[in-house]
Write a structure and sequence with these properties.
Layout lengths: L10 E6 L2 H8 L3 H6 L3 E4 L9 H11 L4 E5 L11 H9 L3 H12 L4 E3 L9 H10 L4 E6 L6 H11 L6 E9 L8 H14 L4 E7 L10 E3 L1 H12 L5 E5 L18 E5 L3 E6 L6 H14 L11 H10 L9 H17 L4 H4 L9
Parallel strand pairs: 1-2, 1-9, 2-3, 3-4, 5-6, 6-7, 7-9
Antiparallel strand pairs: 8-11, 10-11
């Protein structure tokens, strides 16, 4: 029996184990955490020396709930390697059906493991082992491997009784408005998977959060539009929405100083951006953007009671423990976005939170 039945899941955010994403998740209402099924991308936690610290941080933020765990995209080698980097390198070794990865995930009872698909010849043995854990599986397929979906689905089906408790997660990575042109193609991929794995569920993911904000005050959430289009084309099928939680699929490089103070507000189908164009005192700039957002009655929802919205209100009052940096602003946006997408299309449930509220 799987750790979590996939039939009742509506949202699988892909989250990196970084401070902003972990803080955003930690501050969600407990009900939200019960309903979400995150897929964490395993990487070193802050300056920790061992991967166990990353798993500890997940538990701090998410409790003892089941979750998907995948390997993060390989990052450039650090100037001063730590033991954790050797541990990650060992998990990436594909020999013997990714034996190191299989042994690692088997140690953590809450983990629903990801199948590594970089080496097609190693998929079958890997799936046999991981499916044998009886926890459920996710099969993340990066865009570069979309042309291998049929072969991957056939192998997975043969080792999982037709895709029992298996989620195929097709990930476009960084994307923009061009994502909307992929609806027909995505529907075709889903049909291929369902034909070979009739018991599986299929999810599509991407990160369309923008890199530049000059002159931009909003953007549609293209991942949501893609998913809605595919769901309309394939009524009655088991599809689950996914995205990067409004984080970027690729980490931005350094240099250029801190970005202009900006507060992002997540709505159901778009992001709104309130940005200070001029320099000056950063706290007062964040405060001014928070005030502008709250004064925008066409956007601000005073009935949405979350940690993220409370942080925006506190910022508008000049609270030095609220939003005073890009990292805090990012955590606030992700917190609100996760809640909005979890209850997408359910306005009544959107406002039912267990968050303590103070002015």
């Amino acid at each position: 029996m799987a750790n979590r039945e996939l039939g009742g899941v509506s949202y699988i955010p892909i989250l990196s184990i970084r401070p902003a994403e972990m803080k955003a998740l930690q501050e969600l209402p407990e009900r939200d955490k019960d309903l979400l099924l995150p897929c964490f991308k395993l990487r070193p936690w802050a300056g920790a020396h061992h991967l166990s610290s990353a798993l500890d941080r997940i538990e701090d933020a998410y409790g003892e709930r089941p979750y998907f765990l995948d390997l993060a995209e390989e990052e450039p080698a650090p100037a001063t390697p730590r033991p954790v980097h050797d541990e990650l390198s060992a998990l990436r070794v594909s020999a013997d059906g990714y034996a190191n990865w299989c042994r690692f995930v088997s140690q953590f009872r809450h983990v629903m493991p990801a199948v590594q698909v970089n080496e097609p010849a190693e998929i079958r043995l890997q799936v046999e082992r991981l499916f044998g854990l009886d926890r459920g599986l996710v099969v993340p397929v990066p865009q570069r491997a979309f042309n291998q979906i049929e072969g991957i689905a056939r192998t997975v089906s043969e080792e999982t009784n037709g895709g029992q408790n298996v989620c195929f997660l097709l990930d476009f990575g960084k994307a923009g408005i061009e994502l909307l042109q992929q609806q027909i193609i995505c529907a075709g991929y889903a049909q291929t998977i369902f034909a070979l794995c009739p018991l599986a569920v299929v999810s599509f993911s991407a990160s369309s959060f923008p890199d530049s904000f000059a002159g931009v005050d909003h953007q549609e959430i293209y991942e949501r539009q893609l998913f809605d289009g595919v769901r309309l084309a394939l009524p009655g099928t088991q599809l689950i929405y996914s995205d990067r939680g409004s984080a970027r699929a690729e980490r931005q490089g350094g240099g250029g100083g801190l970005p202009a103070p900006r507060i992002d507000y997540a709505q159901a189908s778009r992001w709104r951006f309130y940005r200070a164009d001029n320099g000056g005192d950063r706290m007062s700039d964040y405060q001014a953007q928070a005030e502008a957002l709250i004064d925008d009655t066409q956007v601000w929802d005073p009935e949405l009671r979350l940690w993220g919205t409370q942080m925006i209100e506190r910022t508008s009052l000049g609270d030095l423990d609220a939003i005073i940096s890009p990292a805090r602003s990012t955590a606030v946006r992700i917190n609100i976005h996760l809640h909005q997408q979890l209850f997408y299309g359910e306005p009544a449930r959107l406002h039912e939170t267990d968050e303590d509220w103070s002015d």
